[in-house]
Amino acid sequence: MRRLPPLSALRAFEAAARHGSFKQAANELAVTPTAISHQIRSLEQFTGLTLFERQVRKVVLTDAGLELYPVLRDGFNAFETVLQRLGTAQERRRVIISATNAFMARWLAPRVADFQKLHPEIDLELYASDQAVDLGSDVADIAIRYGRGPYPGMVAEPLFADCFAPVCSPQLGPLGLADLDQVPLIDFKWTRDHPLNPTWQNWFAAAGLPWKARRGQLLFSDEGHAIQAALAGQGIALLSLELVAADIAAGRLTQPFGPSIPGHTYHLVRSAGHPQAPHVDSALAWLRGQARGAA
Length: 295
Known about the structure:
Number of domains: 2
Strand order of the largest sheet: 4-3-5-10-6-9-7-8
Helix content: 25-40%
Distance between the termini: 67 Å
Strand content: 15-25%
Number of strands: 10
Largest sheet: 8 strands, mixed
Number of helices: 10
CATH architecture of the largest domain: 3-Layer(aba) Sandwich
Order of helices and strands: HHHEEHEHHEEEEHEHEHEH
Oligomer: single chain
Structural class: alpha/beta
Shape: rod-shaped
């Protein structure tokens, strides 16, 4: 069994030895100089050694004190280092990314395992909403917004642009332009009206075909639901080729004919007024890399 003096006495001695002053040691440990003096006196009684020479307005270590001080100093430093390391290991970093429901489900969510492999120390929280979030209110650290901008008060950079084309399930069989009157057109509502939205009407104009309302058209309020309807073979949908790239590659969807028309641009957006933390930088760099790989 170890025979050691009280920890409070050892702390008082180490602080007094480091500062060369009982008063400064008292300030550091938030006690009175008298309390420091008592603690050191009790340590000297415990060890049977004189550890300080008391001089006017200062104290000086004796030979015994000089031998004891570095042992305690290094021990306390090591103790502090280990506690800081353990505390940092327990302290998780979190990045909140906001994106539209369809982009989150079809593009971002399937990729997050790659981020976790690269950055196991950072937690991702994915916030899906078709409404733009206020990045100044700490709802999200990063937003992926779809449109043409500008984004006042924000730092925005293009991530990638996409294009739209008719896609459908292979179970509908081979289809051509002549089949457009026979197969339901799947569509979805855009959150914001814009003349350059990649709509069926704009696609017909690009294809050189007259536009007219079709019978049996399926209109969804959510882009993701339109994608699911196309996968289920319920018609032809005009969809982002980026969001359905995996389904086309796997043969779950096919692009029966063209043309494709340009969509808008996905932007990485963050608040201009907030300092950028290193873990947010890591998430931004990862998103850029994923976009380059998808291009």
